[in-house]
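User: I'm putting together notes for a lab meeting next week and I want to include a structural view of one of the chains we've been expressing. I don't have a solved structure, so I'd like a prediction I can at least talk through. The sequence is below, exactly as it appears in our construct file.
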Amino acid sequence: MNITIEPATLHGAIPAVASKSMAHRLLILCGLAQSSTQLECSTTSKDIEATQRCLEEIASGRDSLVLDCGESGSTLRFLLPVVGALGRSARFVRRGRLAQRPLAPLDEQLWAHGMHLSEDGDDLVVSGQLRGGTFSLPGDVSSQYVSGLLMAAPLLPDPMEVFVSTPVQSRPYVDLTIEALAQFGVHVVVGRVGMGASTCERFALNPCALCGPKTIVVEGDWSNAAFWLAAGALEPEGITVVGLDLMSPQGDRAILAALASFGARIARKGNAARATRDHPRPSSMDVSAIPDLVPPLAAVAATTPGTSKLRNAGRLRLKESDRLSSVSAAVNALGGKASVIEDDLHIEGVEHLEAGTVDAANDHRIAMMAAIMATHAKGPVTIQGAECVAKSYPGFWDDYRLLGGSIKTQGVK
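Assistant: Thanks for the context. Below is the predicted structure for the 413-residue chain, given as structure tokens.
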């Protein structure tokens, strides 16, 4: 599906969608718990549905499981150690770019602790019983590896220790997992230890029964709210997102501080956050802990005169697209000036972008980024493959219209 956006000011208020990150974790823990918990999740997405589909297959009791992960990296990386902890055999179906996204060195650690993994085309076939003990991971790999091990640990007969060299990439996402586990009665001991000349973070937990509360509500998603707040930071009337936890452990809550560094005026009240254009200025920041914020921040940088630098973004190469390349390509397609220098993204902002066409690269966050940039283009912007927003935010285009966006859709079947 292609869409064409005419330049229009976005403004108003919009409710946050449910946090995809928390939904994955809470769905898995609900599925593993010995008690019954009602999970209230106001919205869904293809990734959330992939985790739910796989949990239903696990609950079916079949001897050999077929787990269709779709294109969800979270689903695969979280459930891989969980399936091993349950001692089940499974075929993980990986679609789109998921088969090319890395699993090392998590796979090596699983092998070392009793699991067997092999590739069959794009599918991953696993068997064996995961054992507890000591796991070691470098800090510059996906935090999802750590989260998957922590969620599997309560199911094991023996205690688990996970040592991760510092600094830990995307560390706030590990905190999300620790908070989710705490809601099910699991305590994770966290500390720092010296390992020779280096330092590691140590995550330790013992086997225990998972027992959750009667009801859990999935909080609002800061990662997707970031696009609306970025759009608000470009407009004098601003945009408010309601239904957010202003004290959330979600790392992407940092969007407020990041937009403030671009000169936006930020307001917080109750469960709402608001961003408004104030004194635009370029900014430079380390994004290693907040990689999903790079697309909305790049949209702001592209329309803010001066040179902005989003540093230490190397992990973006391993997302649904090579996001360092696809973010840069999207900015340049609309007459902006973006370049990749090693692991940094440099953007020389302009007052107004040009009309043009952006290939979303089958990446939901690139499509949403292009939509925000389109509000400051001189003419229509066409986004190719715009349906990819369904991965995390199926209602994005409807909400875009509610905020005043002008969209024409082509190629809908």
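A couple of points you could mention at the meeting. The chain has two domains: 2-17+220-410, 20-217. The two ends are 8 Å apart (CA to CA).

User: Perfect, that's what I needed.
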